[in-house]
Design brief:
The protein has about 600 residues and is mostly beta strands. It has five domains: about 55 residues, no CATH class; about 80 residues, no CATH class; about 110 residues, Sandwich (Immunoglobulin-like); about 110 residues, Immunoglobulins (Immunoglobulin-like, Sandwich); about 110 residues, Sandwich (Immunoglobulin-like), CATH 2.60.40.10. Helix content is about 0%, strand content about 40%. The chain has no helices and 43 strands. Strands 1, 2, 3, 5, 7 and 10 form a six-stranded mixed sheet that branches. Strands 20, 21, 22, 24 and 25 form a five-stranded antiparallel sheet that branches. Pfam families: Ig_Rha78A_N.
Length: about 600
Amino acid sequence: MSPADNKIYAGCTYYCGTSCSQNWPFQWPNQCVDESYMGCDGGGWQGCCLIASSCEWTASFNGNGGTCTPTSIGPVDEGDPVAGPTSCTRSGYNLNGYTISPSSGACTSFNTSTGACSSIQDDYTVYAQWLLANSAPTAPTSLLAEGATNPTGVTDTTPEFSAIYNDPDSGDIANYFEIEVNTNSTFSGTVMWDTGKTSMANLTAENRVPDKSYAGTALSLNGTTGTVSSYATFTMNTAPTAPTSLLTEGATNPTEVSDLTPEFSAIFNDPNTGQTGNWYRVEVNTNSSFSGTVMWDSGLVAMTATAIGARSPDISYNGTTLSFNGTTYYWRIRFADNVGTTGTVSATAQFTMNNSPYVTDLTTETYSNPIKIYDTTPEFSARFNDADAGSTGIYYQINVNTSSAFNGTSMWDSTKLSMTAVPSGSLITDKSYAGTALTLNGAQYFWRIKLWDENNIESPWSSTANFRMSGPPDTPTALLTDGQTNPLYLNSVTPTFSAIYSDINNDNSSAYEIEVNTNNLFSGTVMWDTGKLSTTISSGNRSSDFTYAGTALTGASNITYYWRMRFWDIDDNVSSWSATNTFRDSLMHLYLNGLKLNGITLN
């Protein structure tokens, strides 16, 4: 090879040749190529190798808006170390290290602090990095906890803190904060929280730091640590204490409660000045330990704001239906304040429901279910009973009906009327019937009564009583002539008559009357009219046989006669005439004419 054959390529000197060993150093590429690939002179080279004899590289220094001295170093033999720039400056900025480009392959072990390279492998450029030269932020101001200055009654166990970021350098941005929380205003007590330097979203000067959860006082903002703020304070909220002075229907542990939706109230207590009670929770149970039947658990319910020491609004019971049965129930209450903190439950209070009165011993005209009443305005009475001590009956209502189920004709509904007060166990004064006019017709009526006590508690309806008006005997039945119904033949010309007597009031008879006539309308010839004659017959029995004593019968006329009968009771009430019966004036004979009988005995 001759010097003319030497070629410079990519910072290295190469030589052209016809014979090469693969063991030679710096061979590139490992295949032979046409000399024109590297621009070798002479042409026609075949089977050549290009052999690098030496490489040199240059390091350049870029001020990146500033000025670096020197601006470059090189050429430098490959593999040698290269120092960084002796200085880099930029007005208003502080040097913050170096970067290299390309970032790999050109330098082995680049020092970002000095810009030096321990072994150069190719050309590269070093770039200076800068930070704006500024003053430290001044102390944060307007410290807020939960959005307030030095608040008390803080209810959030992870309260939020914020402050105004201040910096004398226009355009500076805060990137970090630090908060300290301590039990002592000199921060020499218990450290409750120290965030350390913590990153946050960029914030320009004179703006508020976004809320930082849990607790904060002194804030430190930006990459440069600023002056600590003055200290702020906050006081955690305390739950309301137990309600006091529990009242039911305005009384302490009342008995004989007569309201099925009683009202509850209590005094709201809270150690935090200015707090109000805004929610309540009431529990009502059948057991004082609240392990029985839950009658009502209101859950937390909003109420009118109640100041500390003031009584809550009345809270109406809204649970399982109560009854007037003398049962005692137990209740307790707790309040939640205006920030939603639920307080301690109260002591247990109780109330006892009133007992409903009940009614016994119903009488009509002083009798129990009388079967005969003469008075068309009968008097009613009953006994007032109440398990509540000292209770009195002061109102009544009476129903009278033609049906025992009270679904017939209503004869009288007195409606609710006042009466002279009577103590438990006593009969009320007589109450006179004042309904649809009654008559002495033997009709039966049914009646009931209910009473109210002095608390206006209504009894259930009493059991049903009844009474029957006085009335005439029933129409005679089962009429017989000579013991037969409407006979065609008589036993004699003085036949006997009888009938069944009955009376709705179970009275005995006092008299009877029989009429016999030739006409079924009793408008013909009167054969016999006994007139009113005395007789005594028990109700439901047949009368004695009454012997015919009218116009003589022949026993052979075969005339049909018509008869009827009626009775009077002991009150001289007369029954209706019976149905009409008949008999024929014909005796029962056997006639023998022209008949010879021998050896026949007739009995």
